[in-house]
Design brief:
This protein has 146 residues and is α+β, with helices and mostly antiparallel strands. The protein has one helix at residues 2-28; strands at residues 33-46, 49-53, 58-66, 71-75, 83-90, 93-99, 105-111, 120-130, 133-145. It folds into two domains: 1-28; 31-145, Porin. A hairpin with a 2-residue loop joins β8 and β9 (133-145).
Length: 146
């Protein structure tokens, strides 16, 4: 019986510590992010081959981030209608998954804040098609707490 109560107390202490740690970490998660991507590459498929070129810089905001409900919204420009985004949580990062009206896919991964820069390193990928031809892009940049 003594062993059972010791195990019970130990498990209770661990559970309490984890709940405090997770609550503190949740408070550190921003509810809104402003993201900009200046570097990367884009590819298009034409005449039987993929062709690469540098993409134009890209910026948007991710708003109303609710990690518990795994939801957020994405605004491509000020005043634009926000699109719904699903959130997939990972260790040291959150993935924001957007399926646009035409069924194409955008994925933004935002990593934990870099204490040196005060920004979140981020990667954005777009997978779409134009007139039946594959087009995709991979961007690198940063997101900042709003």
């Amino acid at each position: 019986m003594k062993l059972g109560s010791t195990v019970s107390r130990t498990l209770g202490a661990v559970a309490g510590f984890l709940s405090i740690s997770l609550a503190a970490a949740a408070d550190d998660n921003p509810k809104n992010l402003s993201c900009s991507f200046a570097d990367g590459a884009s590819w298009s498929y034409d005449a039987g081959a993929f062709h690469s070129k540098p993409p134009a810089p890209l910026a948007f905001t991710i708003e109303n981030i609710d990690l518990e409900k795994q939801t957020a919204t994405l605004k491509a420009a000020p005043g634009a209608v926000a699109g719904k985004v699903s959130v997939v949580r990972a260790i040291n990062a959150n993935h924001f998954l957007e399926v646009v009206n035409e069924g194409f896919l955008n994925l933004t991964t935002v990593y934990d804040k870099d204490e040196t820069t005060g920004k979140h390193p981020a990667v954005h990928s777009r997978h779409l098609g134009i007139v039946g031809s594959p087009v995709f892009g991979q961007y690198t940049g940063f997101c900042s707490d709003e």
